[in-house]
Specification:
The strands form two sheets. Strands 1, 2, 3, 6, 7, 8, 9 and 10 form an eight-stranded mixed β-sheet that branches. Strands 4-5 form a two-stranded antiparallel sheet. With 413 residues, it is an alpha+beta fold. It has helices at residues 2-15, 24-53, 57-80, 83-105, 120-128, 131-151, 163-213, 216-224, 246-250, 255-275, 301-317, 356-366, 377-383, and strands spanning 230-244, 279-284, 287-292, 320-321, 324-325, 329-344, 350-354, 373-375, 387-397, 401-411. It is built from 13 helices and ten strands. The protein has two domains: 2-206, no CATH class; 227-411, Nucleotide cyclase, GGDEF domain (Alpha-Beta Plaits, 2-Layer Sandwich), CATH 3.30.70.
């Protein structure tokens, strides 16, 4: 029942001054101002009645007036939703009235440092306004504290509060504002830690996404500099692969099934690239591109890429669903040589390669044979002592003319 009552009160506070167009930050700001006004206003009523019970009618009327002003302000806020006005009234009267109350009781000692309530103002200003405005409120608090020390000799020298009552008020006037300050700071630190944790989590997600698009070294360079990134490499091997038969197969699958199948195949290729120190460049439809020797040199770039190609073909030959081999093959082309690598684009950027070696590699794939790995002469000269290759002879390559090519078959035992 108590929880239900508290939830009802919280819901009531959340509705006061709320507007449908308010953003989440604005809603939170309004809730904090409203809740603080209602709580300190209630404290004003309690303090006023306590002082009046001891016969101090003038001091008692000051916090009572504060409570009335705050509750009327909240009522007005419920209709006009002007949170700046309510916040200004809250901070102004919470700063002034504790000092007025202390002066009416006779100063720091006789007033049981009731002005300590005013210490809440700079902290509330820091929470509810801006750091710059909070400095002004803090300076105002210091000014009133100094003024209180100056005028104390001219204040009354006694009041109707007994020594015990003064001690009780002293404990209350120190304990409650201190508790409120601690609660505010605890809330601030908790929210800060939560925000930092969320920020760290989002940063990790962003970095993971960036690493999914770019090589690690390039991602670091891109984060540290806005300059264009481009490098020349003398010894690079490039692989293009095409999943033959995927397009007609995808027409018999649902979109989700087609995407899942291609994702499973390319994810396996990604694991092979990582295994052999090869850099995945990109995918285009059912095509896959990878390179060895970028963004950092690879001592056996051609060997690594050829071994990966053999494992890619073996994987495709074993692809089965419900025990039935899929009617899919892979056509792969590889070539080696010099290339330029860099990042293009400003929004959907990606790491790419350019050069004659890249173009020939693409031709090796497009002029290849399903189920075969066709390599150019440059690659053949680098790997012929380690891998079994079958000469295909001279074939006409678009844009290049006749070129001698080989089929990569296996590793020499």
């Amino acid at each position: 029942m108590l929880r239900s009552f508290l939830n009802h009160q919280v819901a009531l506070v959340e509705r006061i001054g709320a507007r449908p167009e308010d953003g989440e930050d604005q809603r939170l700001h309004k809730r904090l101002v409203t809740a603080t006004s209602l709580m300190t206003g209630m404290a004003g009523f309690v303090w006023g009645l306590l002082y009046m019970s001891f016969g101090e009618w003038l001091p008692g009327s000051i916090p009572l007036a504060y409570g009335v002003i705050l509750y009327l302000s909240v009522l007005f806020f419920a209709f006009n939703s002007n949170v700046k006005l309510l916040r200004g009234i809250l901070l102004t009267f919470l700063l002034l009235l504790p000092f007025l109350l202390m002066w009416s009781l006779g100063g720091f000692v006789l007033g049981s440092v009731v002005a300590s309530w005013a210490m809440l103002v700079p902290l509330l200003a820091l929470l509810l306004t801006t750091p710059r405005n909070a400095i002004y409120w803090f300076l105002a608090f210091l000014g009133l504290t100094i003024l209180s020390a100056v005028i104390e000799p001219f204040l009354r020298t006694d009041n109707l509060l007994s020594p015990l009552a003064r001690d009780i008020f002293f404990v209350i006037d120190v304990g409650i504002p201190s508790s409120v300050i601690f609660t505010l700071l605890h809330y601030f630190v908790t929210q800060r830690d939560a925000a930092l944790g969320l920020l760290s989590h989002e940063k990790e997600k962003t970095e993971r996404l960036l690493l999914n698009v770019l090589p690690k070294e390039i991602a670091l360079l891109l984060k540290e500099s806005d300059q264009s990134i481009a490098d020349a490499f003398d010894d690079v091997s490039v692989l293009f692969a095409d999943v033959v038969g995927f397009t007609p197969l995808s027409e018999m699958l649902t979109p989700r099934q087609a995407v899942d199948l291609l994702n499973e195949i390319f994810s396996h290729f990604d694991s092979l690239a990582e295994k052999h120190g090869v850099e995945k460049i990109r995918t285009i439809g059912d095509g896959y591109m990878a390179a060895a020797g970028v963004p950092h040199p690879h001592p056996i770039h051609a060997h690594a890429l050829c071994q990966m190609a053999l494992e890619m073909r073996a994987y495709m030959e074993s692809r089965a669903v419900n025990g039935h081999l899929l009617d899919l093959e892979i056509r792969i082309g590889i070539n080696s040589g010099a290339a330029v690598a860099g990042v293009i684009g400003t929004t959907k950027f990606h790491y790419d390669l350019w050069g004659d070696a890249v173009n020939i590699s693409a031709r090796m794939e497009s002029h290849g044979v399903p189920g075969k790995i066709q390599i150019g002469q440059a690659t053949y000269e680098l790997i012929k002592d380690v891998f079994v290759c079958e000469s295909r002879g001279w074939i006409e390559i678009k844009g290049k003319g006749p070129m001698q090519t080989w089929f990569l078959e296996d590793v020499i035992e």
